[in-house]
Amino acid sequence: MSEAEKKEFIERFIEVCGTSEPARIQRLLNISYQAAKNYLLGRYPDTAVLRTIARQTQYSIHWLLTGSGEKIVSAPVLADTLKDIDQLRALIRQECVEVINEALDSQVTSQPKIVVLQSAKLRSEKVREPAALTDKQS
């Protein structure tokens, strides 16, 4: 490997790790301090370290080693992965309704309870008794 190739690899390695400090690279990749220093001097990581880099970062191993190809590897989107925060909120809201309905069905009451869930910031559940029950209790 020429000195220019070594320098380019070191620059890419620092970018992938987000630091040029051997101690931080040691913790990120779970390697020895000396191994981190060796990689910062231009030595190529072994296969196990490359696999760790692939798991810990979004960078392409091919790009790291060669400087060509796609830099960032996009994670595969699974079919059951939620697409956005609105889907997550809808799912949580649906689950809350189901849990509340199950809890209410298990209780024997003559009057239905109305449950109000705050839609903007769901922090707690409030149970509001119908007006007829509130008046009888006073």
Can you tell me about this structure?
55% of the residues lie in helices and 6% in strands. The mean pLDDT is 79.
Layout of helices and strands:
Elements: H1 3-17, H2 22-29, H3 33-40, H4 47-56, H5 61-66, H6 85-106, E1 114-117, E2 125-128, H7 131-137
Antiparallel strand pairs: 1-2
Helix pairs in contact: 2-3
Provide key terms for this protein.
6% strand; elongated; mainly alpha; 138 residues; 2 strands; 2 domains
Total count of strands: 2
Write down the domain tally: 2
Continuous helix count: 7
State the helical fraction.
55-70%
Q: Give the end-to-end Cα distance, rounded to a whole number of Å.
A: 88 Å
> Could you report the average pLDDT, rounded to the nearest whole number?
79
Radius of gyration: 28 Å
Strand content: 5-15%
**Secondary-structure element order, as H and E?**
HHHHHHEEH
Taking strands numbered 1, 2, ... along the chain, how are they ordered across the largest sheet?
Answer: 1-2
Q: Summed up, what is this model?
A:
By secondary structure, the protein is mainly alpha-helical. The chain has helices spanning 3-17, 22-29, 33-40, 47-56, 61-66, 85-106, 131-137; strands spanning 114-117, 125-128.
